[in-house]
Amino acid sequence: MTMSETRELPIIQDPGSFRDSRGYVFNKDGEIYRCIFANGVTDYEAAANGGIYKKLMSAGLLQPHEEVNPAGLGLKDAVYCLNHPKRLPMVSYPFEWSFSMLKDAALLHLDCMEMLIPEGFWLRDASAFNVQFDGERLRLIDTLSIGRRVPDSPWVAYRQFCSHFLAPLAVAAYCDIRTLSLWRSYIDGYPLDLAIKMLPFKQRYRPGLFMHLNLHSRFQESADKREHLGGQGKTQKVVKVSDRGLLGLVRSLRKTVEGIRWKRSSKIWEEYREIRTYRDEDVEEKSGYVEKVVSQIKPKMVWDIGGNVGEFSKIAAKDGAFVVSVDIDPACTEYLYQSLSVEDENKRILPLTMDLANPTPGLGWNNRERLSLGERCTADLTLALALIHHLVFTCNVPLSLVAEWFASMTTHLLVEFPPPEDPMVRKLLINRRGEHLPYTFDEFRSSFGRHFDFMDRHDLGNGRTLFLCKRK
Question: What is an example of a GO molecular function annotated in this UniProt entry (predicted)?
């Protein structure tokens, strides 16, 4: 095909951006853009001309953008078009985040509000899905959520903020951290009345939570009843809120959010160094081999599956790779996230909490609004260290399906095989009486050999073997 015959790649609209009537996000030629329709122009021009976007970007709060000509991209209905030159390495969702990551996303919204209100602007939306980690820090990615403030009006996104941030954080901290998985059922935010019922009685009356959740829920329930009755009854008084009052609300929300703390009770995997069945010399040897493999392959994207507290994720990130570190234990991902927040080393690691036997599926409208784990990106290198025996014996997944799953997500795979006589394997098989899925060296080689070529192997002193594989 000659240059003159080269076809232009089509515009691919992001399936999660259809709800905003003012514009949408799309992908063209591998670049990420946002188009703005006529009904979004007034707010956009006011913010652009007032230097609002520049201030937020300079503060590190807003994803950078540059204006481009919409006609040059073949857009007919767009008045403006923005290019986001720094593409997100991996889109993640609130139900995958650590507790502190969700808390930081809440505080980012409040930071934006404190900067916007004195300028006559506010956030029209307060969705947790509007925040992403870009490899350096959390940033607001929805440019069109910034709009001119309606004078004397209450914050239009107050309820959304409470249902997307305050309710999930409070329930996770004071009820059970595993309730963050409720996001899968309530991607438009937690119902406030449900959150109140889940909180321990004492916590419902904490000053900030009582006002922003309890009273807010009662007020909303009353408003819903009036709407259901067609507005019958007393006329609802229109509440006027000054800039000072709105700032007071934002600061009250900040104090409440900052005061919510999760006391981690699960430390099983955090203390894995003390309970694991192999020696420090074996760990050092394994770390050295991981470093060698990363240096050899030079991956841009690494997935550390079953990443624990991220010791191997940090090795993979040293040379500049972006690392997605996935673990089932929220205490592990919280520990890793907090350690990255205080360390000066490379922070290009995204800790995600996920059950590997039940990874994130497609959710929302037509199961496409929030993409499944496998649809969001693939890895140049996947680390599967001290993992496959847990998948086979704890999750009851055959080795053949484990190998097939890895082949769907990565080009290279570094996988650790603990033999049947390994102490941890024997521990998992206690009381099984031989009733378990096939797990032998030959079964491993056969299952993984269908999808991968074995490039290298390294035998550890503890009897385990590391295999470097490349997808066929």
Answer: methyltransferase activity
